[in-house]
Amino acid sequence: MTEVKLTKNALRSEQVRLNQLEKYLPTLQLKKAMLQTEVNEVRVEILRLEERFDEARLTATHSGGLLNERVGLNLTDAAKVKHVDKEYENIAGVDIPLYKGIEFEPFDYPLFSTPAWLDVTVDQLREMAVARVKVLIAQEKKAALEKELREVSIRVNLFEKNLIPKSKRNIKKIKIFLGDQELAAVGQAKVAKAKIEQRKHASRCD
Questions:
Q1: Which helix (H) or strand (E) holds 149?
Q2: What is the pLDDT of residues 50-63, one digit of tens each?
């Protein structure tokens, strides 16, 4: 641990440092609060999206199970994802993924030899796939926000519990030392003045 220098220059440096720390801390605290709000909101969003996914899966699985036997097709191929299109939004300094669109692998089947409602089932399977992708993107968003929240929380704690208290202790220590030095200097000046007066008085008597 570096020992603080007990000088006026060191005092000025510590005062400037403390001022900067106390000025920046509210910004960090605000960012922490914003991130915590975003994390809470995305947790609710994930629950909502998971409910939608479960509903879509129940519907699609039921229809697909019935049709697999009748049409002789592997209907899971109908919802194979080729590409997920995402865009990113900056929230509190974090790039957050947002769902933009999805592209499926081609799924061809004979129109005349398959039931007319097969189209509906394919749509249901793809809705389930979209719902699943939205859940995964929301989870990715949550992970990014939580990571940033942890890092900001560490910095806030560092400021509140370490850097600012340490700077205040250093300032107090330097002030006490300089104050003691000033008192000692005043005492020495008084002693020196008294000796001068004594010499003057002695010389007049001679």
A1: helix 118-158
A2: 999 999 988 877 66
